[in-house]
Specification:
Length: about 210
Amino acid sequence: MARKTKEDAEKTRARILASALALFVKKGYEHVTFTDIASRLKLTKGAVYWHFASKEALLMELVRLALAKFRRQIEGLMPGGELTFPAVGEMMVRNAMQVISDPKAAAFFRLMKCEIRWGDKSMARIRADLLTDSTFGPVEAFCRAIQTDIAAGRVKAAADAKEIATVCIALWDGLVQARLDGFLECDLATTLSHAYDAIWQRIKTG
């Protein structure tokens, strides 16, 4: 019975997260209440609070799950124990294609890019957590890869890892958003691959 209760709780938690994501995208993060989330699932507001202490905690769990998935993908790139710029670039191309083909991934992308006012005071802690070095996301992956490539002599010693990583993610964000909005007429994977290859050609040695 205890196992079934735990499984039921985990299923309810997953349903709450899915409902919250859908509502955040549809109405905007700041306009969604726990009552909205509960009503959509035919639950009480108290049931939602039992799983999440606040709306910020719910958002952080969505972010945590997305970053955990990213870390698993990164670990799959490191059979030899190190990251490289081309390998991370290839993975980000695959991520881009997954985002545009998976409605849930696309919804999360729109939430993070368009539906949250990151300048609001209530977002300060979440924003800080996302930007710290301890949060292993795409920027950190590119940084570590470039630093590894520099140490191995594959990339010029003067290369600024953080600056290059920031440009790489800006390219990814812009091209994915353009594709989702219907403004990118060329193939996303090819375009992003060409962009990363151009950067690689610029920073590599020889």
